[in-house]
Amino acid sequence: MDLRNVVHDDNDLDEINLIIYGIPRRIYERTEYFHSFDNLTFYQRFRITKATALVMLDITEAQIEHPYDLNHSVAPINQLSIFLRFCATGTHLSCIGDFGGVHFSTVSRIIVRVGRVLATLYNRYIKMPRTQDEINNNHFAFYEKARFPRVIGSIDCTHIKIQSPGGEDAEIFRNRKGYFSINVQAVGNTSLKLMNVVARWPGSTHDATIFNNSRVKQEFENNNFPNSLLLGDSGYFQRPYILTPLLNPTTRAQQLYNESHIRTRNTIERLFGVWKRRFRCWPTAVVYNICNETNEGEPPDPEDMERFLNALQDNEVPHVPHNPPRNNQGAALGNQMRMNLIENYFGNLE
């Protein structure tokens, strides 16, 4: 039997290394950073506050805690710290292992374990509005941005850089900018909260292809969000439920439509900016939405970091390219919807 297949923790690994390779056991020193760090230092290392870390611990502890305390098993709070450190830095596992006082192989298992538990909470933390009251609240919140009616969410895609996966299909992950990526589609609201995420398409995939094969499109086709609209950029095709900006506005009404569209859809661009500033690595969107629900606030820009950290120190909690086929009938209905909105609504705005 290959002893390397029965590794459960660092002590098991050290014993096997001693038997197979004659490598002596290494004693790791672990620090419980939640209590040893003050608020400022904790935020600098993990990119979230202690209050949010406690919320995450509460919802994951039962699933990640080991059923026994043999061989100096890693406590849930330390597992969570290792996972958050990976999210915050995206650095090598050996560096995170040195930081957490565990072997890098243990870091790998912890990241998978904690990430998997958080991923199971997707439907709890990432969801589209369901009730009519929730839909109406979204309409009102978006209307307040720039007087664009009936908007339930803004949609866009962003590229998450990855290493080349290798193999015969590696090039389909190379995007138009020349690097390997996953093309991630997201729908967000005015609170910069994720309502839907699709993260399974290679970087060369067109944005419209991702939408056309997504569940959220089918929900709109089934009229699950009555009298509601998504706002997207020109990477999407016109539909009765998804509106894009005009390429060459000429009339005053068309200009008002474009201005309102851009200002309203800007929420998804801000959402991506906040997400990327908070974490260098994107293992799960659930972590981002937990931060949103606990009022973490937007991570500061580099020029505002000193003021932000000073406030935190004073114990303040700051808040192969593929072009999809066009559906001509759907595009025609979408164009008609857009022109009706421009003529009958934006044409009457002062």
TrEMBL record:
Keywords: Hydrolase, Metal-binding, Nuclease, Nucleus. Its main location: nucleus. InterPro entries: HARBI1-like (IPR045249), HARBI1_dom (IPR027806). Residues 155-285 form the DDE Tnp4 domain. It is found in: Nucleus. It comes from the Eukaryota. The keyword DNA repair does not apply. Its cofactor is a divalent metal cation. Belongs to the HARBI1 family. This is DDE Tnp4 domain-containing protein. It comes from Molorchus minor.
